[in-house]
Specification:
Elements: H1 3-22, E1 33-39, E2 42-45, E3 53-54, E4 60-61, E5 66-69, E6 74-79, E7 82-86, E8 90-97, E9 102-108, E10 110-115, E11 124-128, E12 131-135, E13 140-144, E14 152-158, E15 161-165, E16 170-173, E17 177-182, E18 189-194, H2 205-210, H3 230-233, E19 234-239, E20 243-248, E21 261-266, E22 270-275, H4 281-285, E23 288-292, E24 295-299, E25 314-317, H5 319-327, E26 340-345, H6 360-368, H7 374-385, E27 405-408, H8 409-413, H9 427-432, H10 477-493, E28 501-503, E29 510-512, H11 546-549
Parallel strand pairs: 9-11
Antiparallel strand pairs: 1-4, 1-6, 2-3, 2-5, 5-8, 6-7, 7-10, 8-9, 10-13, 11-12, 12-15, 13-14, 14-17, 15-16, 17-18, 19-20, 21-22, 23-24, 25-26, 26-27, 28-29
Length: 622
């Protein structure tokens, strides 16, 4: 890594550290993980599922999610410049991914972690069955969870880390060392081995040739998850209007943003886009899209600002108005379950209004890296407060509205592929449908052309951020009455539609809600506890406590997962060149010398001892 890259990454980390400290505790996390790669049978679980389902590349990962790789399979997740690679027979639980800390749990198997933009002020922990690992610096690490037959290992190829066993022993692990904890939970021993740290498995070499985690600093911020695939699948150029832009290569002929993929429900963000393209994560959750001379280009967030993750940077159309537009033409919708919902990608400098937060400061941060003008921000925010849609003929048309994708509502809520279910809609029908005030799929049985609810907050006169909205066009009383009558008739007809309806956090807009059951292909995986990622006990963590200082969380309070029997072949034997004995167990306060009646023959641990080449524990000396 060159000097310029190190300087740029250092500056980016500084931005992350400064910005994270300013986030309110109730803000949604500004970053999410990404399932970046799978090979073989890989399974996924979130806290809303009763079992394991097939893992899908580009699925956003949040706190409470779990990944399982079957034997001979492998997978990779990435989070803002940190790469975590999972070997076969590995279970990884994402305990916490937010702006204050990252906490992973490796219940069994092995992970290789390489960080490219680790903020040393934000705790990064890995919980194993025998102890907790704290990554202190940007570096290259591997972690073996261990088993009832094998020790737990932390290897440091570069960087610095600390490992703490469940009984309180703590040791620093430096480059070229391996930290080892062995024994059962009642007789744990901890030591460092001065040995060659095992390299990551050779089968990752092909993946390394395909992607590049070395950040293209002249284009992107280190905080963008998923940037690693962009150089392999597209090219950068300079646009006279938007600056640096990225253009995908080898996309399907009819490709357009947010069309080849599906929707899924991800807490706490709600409906989230999962793109089919291997490079599709970053351009779906950051930045904006522009169509230049019939070619799509992605306009990334400004490099010198901290990007904030969004579930999908789109605006929605729908509601009864879209149903009426289609029924007035030649398209027959059949039942209300096939009522349409549509969306289009936001263009450069257009504001995104999240449906899952009412915090205006969060809204401003979410748009700050995309050069949205303050007047546009104020106008969209006030419209959302009043639940005021963009109506054709009354408001300016959004840049990409003509590229709207429309599908039946049941395809949307059941996470089915979008492209093959897209409806053919005329430009006139698209233009006749209002744009929802917030980024959420409008319920097809509700009207978007309604006044704000009585409880909607009004703009404060003394609020410097509040802009005076442009006067709305005078309404035609007869047309309004006719529209209301049609809306009521449509709502009554669709009252028994087979989909759930919820309300958005902002604007209280009726929206398609997560269905109570979503059919997903069943996949293999370990037996799940009632709440697999919920702390059941506490362990004292004497190392980094920055996480609690930055706003709470569960740092140091997650019970270790149980030791599991070995699966597959035994891990390689590690030889210690230093021959150092393991650390003695912590002294008991006010200990007394044992009497002859206190001396008992020691019992063997329930797990195998370390390899034969390792020395036995040294006898204590007076």
């Amino acid at each position: 890594m060159g000097q310029s890259l190190r300087v740029a990454l250092g500056a980016a980390v500084g931005v992350v550290a400064f910005t994270a400290a300013a986030y309110a505790l109730n803000d949604p996390p500004s970053q999410a993980g990404r399932l970046a790669y799978t090979e073989g049978t890989v399974s996924f679980h979130d806290d809303g599922q009763a079992g394991w389902s097939r893992a899908i590349v580009n699925t956003p990962l949040t706190s409470g999610d779990s990944i399982w790789t079957e034997p001979n399979a492998r997978s990779e997740i990435s989070v803002a410049g940190t790469r975590v690679r999972m070997d076969g027979s590995t279970q990884l639980n994402l305990l916490e991914i937010n702006d204050r800390q990252t906490r992973l749990q490796v219940g069994q198997g092995r992970v290789d972690i390489k960080t490219f933009s680790l903020d040393p002020n934000t705790p990064y922990q890995v919980v194993t069955p025998r102890g907790t690992i704290n990554l202190r610096q940007q570096g290259d690490y591997y972690v073996e969870a261990g088993s009832t037959q094998d020790a737990t290992h932390l290897g440091v190829r570069s960087g610095a880390a600390q490992i703490q066993s469940l009984n309180g022993q703590t040791v620093a692990v430096n480059p070229g060392q391996v930290g080892e904890i062995f024994g059962d939970t009642g007789a744990l021993q901890l030591r460092t081995l001065n040995t060659a740290v095992p390299a990551q498995p050779a089968y990752w070499s092909a993946r390394d040739r395909q992607i590049n985690y070395e950040l293209p600093t002249q284009y992107l911020s280190a905080g963008i998850t998923g940037y690693e695939d962009l150089n392999s699948y597209g090219s950068w150029s300079n646009d006279s209007q938007y600056g640096n832009v990225w253009t995908p290569r080898s996309a399907p002929a009819d490709w357009q943003p947010y069309k080849n993929g599906h929707w899924t429900y991800v807490k706490p963000y709600g409906w989230t886009w999962v793109d089919d393209q291997p490079w599709g994560y970053a351009p779906s959750h950051y930045g904006r899209w522009a169509n230049r001379n019939n070619q799509w280009v992605w306009v990334p967030p400004q490099r010198d600002t901290q990007p904030v993750y969004a579930p999908a940077l789109v605006d929605f159309i729908g509601g009864i108005q879209l149903v009426q537009a289609l029924l007035g033409g030649t398209t027959s919708l059949g039942n209300q379950n096939s009522a349409p919902v549509g969306w289009f990608p936001l263009g450069p400098r257009e504001a995104y209004v999240p449906s899952y937060s009412t915090d205006r400061d969060y809204y401003a941060r979410l748009n700050s890296s995309n050069q949205v003008q303050q007047q546009a921000l104020d106008e969209r925010w006030l419209r959302a407060q009043r639940r005021e849609a963009y109506i054709a003929g009354q408001n300016s048309v959004m840049a990409n509205q003509r590229f709207t994708t429309v599908i039946p509502s049941d395809v949307f809520v059941n996470s089915q592929p979008v492209a093959r279910a897209a409806l053919k809609i005329s430009p006139a029908q698209i233009a006749a449908a209002p744009v929802a005030p917030v980024a959420a799929p409008p319920a097809p049985t509700a009207s978007l052309a309604v006044a704000a609810p009585a409880s909607a907050p009004a703009a404060k006169v003394d609020d410097p951020k509040a802009a005076t909205p442009a006067p709305a066009a005078a309404a035609d009383p007869k047309a309004a009455a006719d529209a209301k009558a049609k809306a009521e008739a449509q709502a009554k007809a669709g009252a028994n539609a087979n989909f759930a309806v919820g309300k958005t956090a902002i604007a209280d807009m009726p929206t398609l809600a997560k269905p109570t059951t979503t059919p997903k292909p069943v996949a293999p995986g370990p037996k799940l506890a009632t709440a697999p990622n919920t702390p059941a006990a506490t362990t004292k963590e004497t190392g980094n406590t920055t996480g609690n200082a930055q706003g709470g969380g569960t740092q140091g309070k997650t019970a270790a997962p149980p030791l599991m029997p070995r699966t597959g072949a035994a891990p390689p034997v590690l030889k210690d060149d230093n021959k150092a004995p393991p650390m003695p167990a912590p002294a008991t306060p006010q200990a007394k010398a044992p009497t002859t009646t206190d001396i008992k023959t020691p019992t063997a641990p329930t797990v195998a001892p370390p390899p034969a080449s390792a020395p036995a524990p040294a006898a204590a000396t007076p």
